[in-house]
Amino acid sequence: MRLTLQGVVKRFPAHKGQPPQTVLRNVDLTVEQGEFVSLIGHSGCGKSTLLNVVAGLTCPDAGRVMTGDTVVTGPGPDRAMVFQNYSLLPRLSLFGNVREAARAAASGRARAVTDEIAERYLTAVGLWEHKDKRPGQVSGGMQQRTAVARAFAVGPRILLLDEPFGALDALTRSRLQDQLVELWQSESTTETVLMVTHGIDEAIALADRVIVMGNPPGPSIVEILDVDLPRPRDRVKVVDQPEYRRVHQRLLSLLRDEGRAAA
Amino acid sequence: MTVLDQVRLDTPGEMVRDTCEPFPREPKRAVAPQVRAALASTGWALLGGGVLVALWALIASRSPDLPTPAEGWAALRTLVSSPFYDNGPNDKGVGLQLLTSLQRVFSGFALAAAVGVPLGLLIGASRRAWRAANPVVQLLRPVSPLAWFPIGLVVLKDAPNAAVFVIFITALWPTVINTAAGAAAVPRDHRNVARVFQFGRLAYLRHVLVPCALPSVVTGLRLSMGVAWMVIVAVEMLSGGSGIGFFVWDAYNAANLADVIAAIALIGTVGVALDIAFLRLARRVELEEVAA
Fold it and tell me: Cα distance from A17 to chain B (closest Cα, Å)?
């Protein structure tokens, strides 16, 4: 499903001594069906806000977001999100977390079918044997894998990822990235992915396009870089390819300039 | 040197003293610290109790109407030796009176929980319900529950039921207020999860709102129980006929202050037992929270 943003503006009113801010300044963006797009930028550039607007959690002050031909007015079953801090419900088991989301996505469905879906995705992220544990009893990586399973289990057309691997150690992160790409490529329903990230390597290794966002008062979208690397990408070999290094260099210099402007 | 510096300098010194002290003496007494701590707290408790009894004895020696500690102790032993005798409506054992009071407290308390928890959840979850209910709650909360006794008496036409009604009112406010506070404190993350994954009302209630409010609910119930147990004595002095409050009043009318003092000790004991039971419950809920 194609995702379109047209002239999206989001302002935050003055709050606790902070002046009012226009975090999203006339954002135009199209994410094609089947595309994996990374959003990268310094803190405060509005990348998480952009994701929340697409998710329907926040309303834009101007402009509109469209999934396919429908205008987004709130959260919907065509979009699912993996939150930055896992955000599992603490009193439900890992299985319960996945199942409740799957159930809410299709309330008319038979219970057995919902359970089967939850089982499939929890197995896909390798957590079936831990299904009865509570989120507090497992590691951060396992919590985030559950959150990924939960997002896929609702069968979304568009997957939104808000710094999904930010709080994880490097090893866990790369394994989880692989699992995510695998799930994305094997799932027929979930085609389009929009991921907010801090990591340059992560942005390039996963995405077809990297969108660099800038801090106020400049434009929200500074530059869009194509990542022309074939899939499946081997995370060890991909780093040595000239294309990877080209994008890496460009991102580094763009972000450094942005950092200077912000400072 | 600033205050902060002093604190920084002082704290490590204390820590060193605390951790190092047991080692030079007898390293083999590994279990002893716990036993010693228990003995120490018992000792301090005995000291506190001793001071109270000494003061009491001092005052009793100057005031002939006040029973001495020995007389109080004798009265307590007599009361406890046959707590469940029943010689008609005006002469019942103190155990029966306590049970009657407990039954009233639990009835009123259960009613308050049945009404207060759902009401609190609604007030906490809905801004409109909060705006509507908050002024009413704030106005009625500071009113002594005993002021409701005449209303209960007229409407229910029965003194014991009016006492239960007063307990209901007593237990209602802490339950409502704490439940509402817990329900209002659902983390934004959890609300966002419920929104993105489009939880229905029931799923939101079951998986987000109630689990989040549960520790506050238990706290509210515990506070309610504490106040209810205090108020039952007063309301039974008004309602008469039976219950530990009536027992106290009856003993006073019979000029038997020793029984009043013994009853105070018993009421306190039951109150502590109730509070410990609720503390256990609260700790279990919290443990579950930590494990979750």
Answer: 22
